[in-house]
Specification:
alpha+beta; conserved putative lor/sdh protein from methanococcus maripaludis s2 fold; Elongation Factor Tu (Ef-tu), domain 3; 6-stranded antiparallel beta barrel; 4-stranded antiparallel beta sheet; 19 strands; about 25% helix
Length: about 375
């Protein structure tokens, strides 16, 4: 029995060895065939990838800043003289025109003074007229005539003063704008320093902001600015630089810039915090999708499609935009880069395109061929 068992055990071992050898030969041959197919790029066994075309895009170099709005013109409305408020003729937040009466003070005394001054002037003019008639017949002297002329001038000046004092009892808007809240009520006693309300010309708003001194030569009047605010998400307000300060702040090493923005429907109030973007320059550059960039340490690479193979190429990056990166050096416009499947690639690896590269339209294609960016 022991001999039979030994024979059976030996046969079992031989079968195991033979089966292992056959399996090894099968998989080794299949692996060698697959490797050869991949090296030849045949049989559709390349790494599946998606491609995109590196094209010319208009890129803008911007600098960011923050600031607060201010009205183009803004004043505090105060009386020219003291008195008691008899009328208030405006509604807070309402638009007014230059010359509109906003409030009236009590004017009984001033009106009486104006009437008296008018009567004195009328009397002086009648006396002057009689004097001229008598002077023609030499009934009065030249000295008397000159005295009558002087009295008429004094009476006219007195009337002008009385008229001005009467007009000062009306508080008027000095320019077109929007009035603020009432600071006083009817019946209140006011002086020349009492603020009745505020007046803002918000047809345009101005924004003061600071930029570092290194940009002093890059900012100029007429340069475009774009402002945004949290109060109006997703909305941009476009304006331009109107003034640049002539001095650099020695502490912050920055200079002040003033921009002006149109204010349609006067929706921007004075004092609103805004984020400002100044366009320093715009030029056509080569850009690729962000997904195509591979970073290794301080270096950046992309895989460029070269026929049915991927070529690894080092690139220098510039500024970034939403979803795209500028290529300063390493890729020319019109080349195809891998955007999907980069993690499985090696330099010279065969590739199989899964999706068509982003083909430009006829106009863009012609521009890419000529190396020119979009107009």
């Amino acid at each position: 029995m022991s001999l039979v068992r030994q024979i059976i055990g030996a046969l079992f071992v031989l079968l195991l060895v033979a089966g292992g050898y056959v399996a090894y030969e099968h998989y080794a041959t299949e692996g060698a065939t697959d490797g050869a197919d991949q090296r030849r790029g045949g049989g559709g066994m390349g790494v599946p990838v998606e491609l995109s075309i590196a094209d010319m895009r208009l890129a803008e170099r911007r600098v960011e800043a923050v600031g607060s709005t201010r009205s183009r013109r803004a004043v505090e409305i105060v009386p020219e003289t003291s008195g008691r408020i008899n009328e208030i003729d405006f509604e807070p937040g309402a638009p007014v025109s230059a010359g509109d009466v906003l409030a009236r003070l009590d004017d009984d005394i001033e009106r009486a003074n104006h009437t008296e001054a008018q009567a004195n002037l009328d009397e002086a003019q009648r006396a002057l007229d009689r004097g001229r008639t008598l002077r023609e017949s030499n009934t009065i002297t030249q000295a008397s005539m000159e005295q009558l002329i002087s009295q008429e001038a004094v009476a006219r000046a007195a009337l002008d003063r009385a008229r001005r004092r009467l007009e000062d009892r009306e508080i008027k808007a000095p320019f077109d704008g929007v009035v603020g809240l009432r600071q006083v009520d009817v019946g209140a006693r006011v002086t020349e320093s009492t603020v009745i309300t505020t007046l803002d010309d918000r047809s345009e708003v101005e924004i003061d902001f600071s930029l570092p001194e290194t940009l002093y030569g890059s900012v100029y009047a007429g340069q475009a600015v774009v402002a945004t605010t949290a109060a109006f998400p997703g909305r941009e307000f476009t304006g331009e630089v109107i003034n640049i300060d002539s001095r650099i702040d020695p502490t912050s090493r920055s200079f002040r810039v003033r921009a002006r923005l149109p204010n349609p429907n006067q929706i921007l109030p004075a004092g609103m915090f805004m984020h400002i973007s100044v366009v320093l320059e715009a030029q056509d550059v080569v850009m690729v999708p962000e997904e195509s960039i591979l970073a290794e340490g301080t270096r950046n690479y992309v895989f460029v499609a070269n026929g049915d193979q991927a070529s690894r190429r080092e690139v220098s990056l510039g500024q970034r935009e939403v979803g795209f990166v500028e290529i300063v050096e390493g890729i020319e416009a019109g080349e195809q880069v891998v955007v999907e499947g980069t993690q499985r690639l090696r330099d010279g690896a065969p590739i199989r395109v899964m999706g068509a590269a982003a083909e430009p339209d006829d106009e863009d294609g012609e521009e890419a061929a000529t190396g020119a960016g979009p107009a």
